[in-house]
Amino acid sequence: MILDDFMTRAALAGIGTALAAAPLGCFVVWRRMAYFGDATAHAAILGVALSLALSLPVFAGALVVALVMATAVSLISGRGYAMDTLLGVMAHSALAIGLVGVSFLSNVRIDIMAYLFGDILSVSRVDLAVIWGGALLVLALIGWRWSALLTATLNPDLARAAGVDPKREQLVLTLALALVVAVAIKVVGVLLITALLIIPAATIRPFATTPERMGILAALVGMASAFGGLRASYSFDAPTGPTIVCVAALLFLLSTVVSGLRRSA
Amino acid sequence: MPLLRGRGLIVAPTLVHAHDLTVEYGGTTILDRVSLSVTRGEIVTIVGPNGSGKSTLIRAILGGVTPGRGWVEKPRGLKIGYVPQRLVLDPTLPMTVERFLSLPRRVSKARAQDALERAGVPGIGKRQMSVLSGGQFQRALLARALLETPDLLILDEATAGLDQPGSAAFYRRIEEVRAETGCGVLMISHDLHVVMSASDRVVCLNGHVCCEGTPDVVAAAPDYRRLFGEGTKGALALYRHTHDHSHGHDHGHAHHEPADRDAAE
């Protein structure tokens, strides 16, 4: 059947991940949380190490550690610490501890590169189910909280007056982010996850008039990048995860040029 | 009538009651045992120099600041319309006026148009929030706050950025709304002419409640005169005010540099 082809599985995995990552990425961009995505993603490698040590599914370990990191960062933010410094410490410490941890696991032969940059061509049917399950869950979560999330993003006091608790919405985003990270590890790896979040949203910004359109168009851009990147990596025999991000970056460049021309015209 | 659904603590017409609120940030007392209440159909204005805790008081009432001591009572299901002092939209967030009016609950196009017309800015529904003039922006904020016929309207220096006729029209609109719907209004204003002509009750705040009462009573109060100069002619006195006075009465707290509190507001 059709899923027997590894290229088909890879394409579906990439499209599923981009579908969830891009609309979430809009909130990451609107709320200036790029650092937050990075910290969560880097922490996930620690989750990978733990799951390998304990013989648990990598997805589960990455999800739990990403969730812990994202929650910790959420709690710390807005308390007057210098966020970028603190995040730099936490994100890279988690990454380093994870890498050291993995190196101690002498009984497993693993290719750490697969977790740093993704290994989309080795996606199994089970992986595919996990990726699409996670992606649909993220989409459902964001869709359900969409208006409340937007109001809280605009102004926390405005949200409170309307009966929306900004802290709860922050938690929703935290959860969604951890899920996307766990899902995307296999596709682009922890180092490039933030790219899938941010580049599609930034690419489409000049052409969107409402938040909804930006979310939908960003998802399309993300899916096109995933599909295009996969084809390009096949043609040029290049690593797939980075190629997907390269295609996304090209689209961003194109969008910047076109919107610049439109403005000056 | 939603007001009667309170838990018995609140007498029917009271919309909000703050009891002895004390708020501290890092050892600085922003609010010192401040009590305040607004009843249905009443316009209450808070005046006070920069850094006197006006915005903090509003945020405590909205629930964004947790007081160290004291509490805020609001009837269950109280509908609050809130117009913030300013709303900064992230440039990456596309937002038409029409979409903004539907946050967080969707309203029909006809109602949105009607709301804009009544706010004095018809036909701006399709425009981006980012291209509106200061006056149009504030009116759009007001239109949104009035959409759900609030029980309590909270305005935090809502006319900042409006010219004299603009702000006069703005406050006339507020009085109309109060007459039409019987809502209560709690506002912060720097425009002493407006305060004196449009308020039922004035609360003069300077960390603590210096004095309160009808505009006549407050205008004659020695504390108010010390803060704002003689009479209400000198609206400029407010801006020139250097906060170095000492009150004759014993409050048991030191007055701090206004700059400190500005940062906290």
TrEMBL record, chain A:
Keywords: Cell membrane, Ion transport, Membrane, Transmembrane, Transmembrane helix, Transport, Zinc, Zinc transport. Pfam families: ABC-3. It is a multi-pass membrane protein. The chain crosses the membrane at residues 6-30, 42-73, 85-105, 126-146, 175-202, 214-234, 240-261. One of its GO terms (cellular component) is ATP-binding cassette (ABC) transporter complex. One of its GO terms (biological process) is zinc ion transport. It is found in: Cell membrane. It comes from the Bacteria. Belongs to the ABC-3 integral membrane protein family. Involved in the high-affinity zinc uptake transport system. This is High-affinity zinc uptake system membrane protein ZnuB. The lineage of its organism: Bacteria, Pseudomonadati, Pseudomonadota, Alphaproteobacteria, Rhodobacterales.
From TrEMBL, chain B:
Residues 245-265 have a biased composition (Basic and acidic residues). SUPFAM superfamilies: P-loop containing nucleoside triphosphate hydrolases (SSF52540). Its EC number is 3.6.3.-. The gene is znuC. This is Zinc import ATP-binding protein ZnuC. The keyword Translocase applies. Transmembrane segments: none annotated. GO terms for biological process: response to zinc ion; zinc ion transport. Keywords: ATP-binding, Cell membrane, Hydrolase, Ion transport, Membrane, Nucleotide-binding, Translocase, Transport, Zinc, Zinc transport. It holds the Pfam family ABC_tran. One of its GO terms (molecular function) is ATP hydrolysis activity. The keyword Membrane applies. PANTHER family: METAL TRANSPORT SYSTEM ATP-BINDING PROTEIN TM_0124-RELATED (PTHR42734), ZINC IMPORT ATP-BINDING PROTEIN ZNUC (PTHR42734:SF9). Gene3D superfamilies: P-loop containing nucleotide triphosphate hydrolases (3.40.50.300). Residues 16-231 form the ABC transporter domain. It comes from the Bacteria. Residues 243-265 are annotated as: Disordered.
